[in-house]
Queue: 3 jobs
Job 1
Amino acid sequence: MSTANTTRDQTADRLLRSTAARSYDPELEINWSAPLRDGAWCIPEHRCSLYGTPLWDGLTQAQRFDLSRHAAASVAGLGIWLEMILMRMLTRLAGSGDVTSGRVQYALTEVAEECRHTIMFARLIETLGTPAYHPGPVISALGRLFSARASGPAMWAAILLGEEITDRFQREMADDASIQPLVRMVNRIHIIEEARHIGFAREELRRAVERTSAGQMLVHRYFIARLGYIIARNLVNPQVYRAAGLDPRTAHRAALANLLHRETIRFGGEKIMTFLGDQGLVGPPGMFWWRRSFLL
Ligand SMILES: [Fe+2]
Ligand SMILES: [Fe+2]
C-alpha cells in the first residue's frame, strides 16, 4: 500500500472512530411533538433576505416571523436536494473502491449520516408547516446529471459548497437565543456531524487537485463556479415571499438588489471560497458565475 493510501486510510479510521463515539439519531434526540415557540426567528432577523429594504419595513412583525420560518424551510429544502446529490456521489465512490479500505467504509458511513440528515430536514419542514421548497425541474435535472458524472475536484468542491455554506449559517444560529429551539437543535446535530464530512472532503479535494492537469482544472473551475451560483441562488426560493403576501418576482428582485442579502451570501461562502481559492479552483473561466453568485 502506498504512503498516500496509508495516510488516507488513517484519516478515515480516525473519522470512523469519531463517528462511533459521537453521532446522533434525530428521531430520538429531538422532541418532534413539542410546539413551536411563539415570537422566535427560524433564521436570524438580519439574515432575512429582505431585511433592510422598504418591503421589510412594510411588513408586520408576524409576517416577518412567517417569512423567516419559510426561509428556514427553503434552506432545508435546498439541503435535502444537496444531500441527495452527495449521497449518490459517495455511493458511486464506494461502489468503485475497495470495501475493505477505511476510505470506502467512511464514505458509506457518511452516506448513512446524510440519509438521517435528509429525514431530519424533511421532518423540520413538516413541523415548520410550510411547503416543501425545492429547486425547479431544470436545476433538479442538472443535479441528477452532475451526481451521475462528477469526479475529482468538481465533485469534492460541490460537496464542500453544500456543506460549508449551510454550516456557516447554522453555527451562527446555534447559540442565538432568539432562534426557534427546534431549529437550533437540528443545527447542533448537523454541525457536529458535518465537521467530519468537511474534514474528509477537504482532504480528498486537495488530493484530487494534485492529480488534475492544468487543462482539466479549467473545466473543474467552470463547473464549480456554475454550481456555486446555483446553490447561492436557491438558498431562498422566491415562493417563500408568498407567506408574507408579497409577489414572489418583485420580492425576489428586491432581495437580489439588497446589499445586506448579498453580504449574507458572501458570509455563507467566506470559508469555502478561501479554501477553494487556495486550491486554485476560483478563477477563469468561472468568474462570470462567481461574481453573479455574490459568494465572492
Ligand atoms: Fe448533512
Ligand atoms: Fe455532510
Job 2
Amino acid sequence: MDTKTLLEWSAKYHTPNYGARAPICIVRGEGARLWDSDGREYLDFGAGLAVANLGHCHPRITGAIREAAATLLHVSNLYHTAPQIHLAKLLCEHSFADRVFFCNSGAEANEAAIKLARKYGRERGASDRYEIIATRNSFHGRTLGALSATGQERYQQGFEPMVPGFKHVAYNDLRAMERAIDSRTAAILVEPIQGEGGVHVPDDGYLPGLRKLCDAAGILLILDEIQTGVARTGKLWAYEHVGAAPDIMTLAKGLANGVPIGATLAREEVASVLTAGTHGSTFGGTPFVSSVALATLSTVIDEKIPERAARLGRYLMDALGGFPRDVVREVRGRGLLIGIELTKAAGPVVDACRDKGVIVLSAGEKVVRLAPPLIVDENDCQRALETLRSSL
Ligand SMILES: Cc1ncc(COP(=O)(O)O)c(C=O)c1O
C-alpha cells in the first residue's frame, strides 16, 4: 500500500484526537534508527514518548518476545506464572518497594495508586482521608481518575465533571504543599520531574521535603515515575537522585521497552490494604509482557544503562548550554530527559528536525523535549545537536 493512500485512510478512519500526526508512516526500527515507508532513515530522539529506552528491536528484547510468544501469551491472574513472579521480585529487589500490582498503562498504574491511597487513608488514617494533593502543570494520564489528578485544565476541558477528591498546588513549592494538607488528605502525588508539563526539575530539597511532610502528617507519598523511571534520568528511579523513597511508585512507558505494561509498587504496609478482590486487571502482568519487562529491566541493570544515560545527558546538556540565548531561554533536565525552552513555538522546530531526519518531541508550547533511547552514543548526540541548532 502506498503512503499517500495510507495517510488518506488514517484521516478517514481514525478518531481525530491525534490531529497533528506527522505525515510519515514508520515501518521499521533498529537501535536509535527508524525508517519510514519511503525508505527514509531517522535518528530517534523521542523513543516513542520516552518508551523504547533500550532502542528499537534490541536483540535481548526481541529474543524474549520471540520466546515468550512461542511459550505462553496469556493466562488470567487466577493462576501463577513464573515471569510475573520473577518480575515483581526483581522490581522489589531494585527499589524501595515490597509488592507490585501489574496493569497495562501509565494511567492505569496511577488509577491503582489512587485507589490504594484512598483505601489506605480510609482504613489506616486517623480520620476519613481520601483526598490527593497533586501539582499544577502535572500529567498523570487520560482516564478520569488520572485526568482528575492531572494539573492541566486543557486536558480536562469538555470531560467535566472531574472525579472529586483532588487538589492542586504549585510544583516545587513545599510551603504551598504544607498549607494544602488537612485532615482529609490521604496522599501527595507528584512526578519527580514534570515531563509532559515541560521538563521541570524541582530543587533537590523538594522530594525530601515532601517525604518529611508526609511522615509528619501520616500520609502517603506517591511518585509517578512513568516517564522518569527505568534509567531515563540517569538512575534506575529518579527518586534515587535525592534519596527520598516514596510509599507508592507508578511505572509504565520504558518498563517493557514498548510492549504495553503498567506497574504500581508499594511498601508492605500500604500494599496490604489491597485485599482479595479489591482491584484487578485482565491483561495485567501476562506471562508475555512480564517476560519482556524482565528482559528489559535485567538488560538495563546488567548493562549499567543508568550510568550511560547520566553521562550522555551531561554531554547533551553541556552542548545545549552553548546554544544561542536569543532562541533558547533555558535548558532543563536530568539524564536523557531534557527540555529546551525556546523563546518561540516548539512545533515548527520539531517539524524542521524531522524534515532533516531527526525525531524530537515537544512538551508544552515552547519546549523541545529530547528523550532518546538510552543506548545512543556521542555521534548520535552530535548529529541531534547539529540538526537542532540548524532548525532553531
Ligand atoms: C508522568 C506520566 N504519568 C502518566 C502518563 C500516562 O501514561 P499512559 O499514556 O501510558 O497512560 C504519562 C504519559 O505521558 C506520563 O508522562
Job 3
Amino acid sequence: MSSAEELLRSRGLRVTRPRLAVLDVLAAGGHLEVEEITRQVRERLDSVSTQAVYDVLGALSRAGLSRRIEPAGSPARYEARVGDNHHHVVCRGCGMIADVDCAVGEAPCLEPHSAHGFEVDEAEVTFWGLCPSCQARRTADD
Ligand SMILES: [Zn+2]
Ligand SMILES: [Zn+2]
Ligand SMILES: [Zn+2]
C-alpha cells in the first residue's frame, strides 16, 4: 500500500484513482491552480473532469490533506504542505508564491486586541513584494 493510500485511509477517505492522482501531483510541491492540477492529473489518468478535480480537492482540504490559499487577485491554489501554519510571500509582479515559515509556529500566530468574542484559530498572513527575477527586470528597465 502506498503512503498516499495510507494517508487517505487514515482520514477515513475512500481510496480512488483521482484522489491518488491529485495527491501525487500535490506531493511534488508548490502552489498549483486547479487548471494545472487537472492537466497533470490527466497525464496520469485517461479522463478526469475539472469538476471531479474540484471535488477531490474539496474532500482533501476538508480532511486536512491539502490546503487552499487564495491571495488577492489570484485564482485559488492548492498545496500539500499542511498542518504547520506556514505563511506565503507573493510577488506583485508575476504572482509567484513561496512559503515562509511562521516565526511563532502555531496558529493563530497573531493575537488581535479584540476578537469580538470570536474563538480565533487562524491568522492569515501574506507578505507581498517583488521576487528576485522581477527585481532584476525592474533594474534592467531603469
Ligand atoms: Zn515576480
Ligand atoms: Zn505554502
Ligand atoms: Zn505566523
